[in-house]
Fold this sequence. Notes:
The protein contains 6 helices and no strands. By secondary structure, it is mainly alpha-helical. The chain has a single domain (22-74, 82-140), classed as Four Helix Bundle (Hemerythrin (Met), subunit A). The longest helix has 24 residues, at 93-116. It binds heme C. Residues 24, 27-28, 31-32, 34-35, 38, 83-85, 99-100, 103, 129, 132-133, 136-137, 140-141 line the site of heme C.
Amino acid sequence: MKKILAALLLTALAIPAAMADSPTEVRTQSFKKILRAFEPMGMVVRDRDPYNKDAFIKQADTLKQLSAEPFNHFPQGSIDGKSRAKPEIWSQPAKFQSAKDNFLKSVNDLSSTARSGDLAAIKKSYGVVAQSCKACHDSFRGPER
Ligand code: HEC
């Protein structure tokens, strides 16, 4: 009986570990959340959707809340079959860190600019964020596979 209980307990403990998502999946989901927060602002910035100051502030703040999250999921060398992460993330850590810092700063700036209600300034700030996504992707994200 004891043995069975122990076996059951071990199985119960083993299941969550086996089902846990890989770092690649976790950070990809996290980046996708960022994209979903970022896109609606892009619609406003491209004059496709009407500008509403309060709604835009909320969106910018959501982006800010989400923005640091994916970077908690880049353990050394974590590249699996699906990952687009490049080895340079770990071989050029200072450069990766600075791409990340630029991004976080640009997201902060966007959230401040959103409060000004100055749409021209907001468009500029949004562009800086978009540029910081691209700069990091150009150096540290490989082709889709
Ligand atoms: C400092 C680096 C860095 C910044 C900044 C960054 N990304 Fe990424 N992003 C990556 C890396 C690396 C991956 C690939 C992760 C993997 O596949 O393991 C990635 C993956 C993604 C993915 C997952 C799907 C895919 O294409 O691989 C999306 C969506 C994404 N990024 C959107 C964005 C957006 C939008 C921004 C800016 C608002 C942004 N990223 C900023 C490094 C960055």
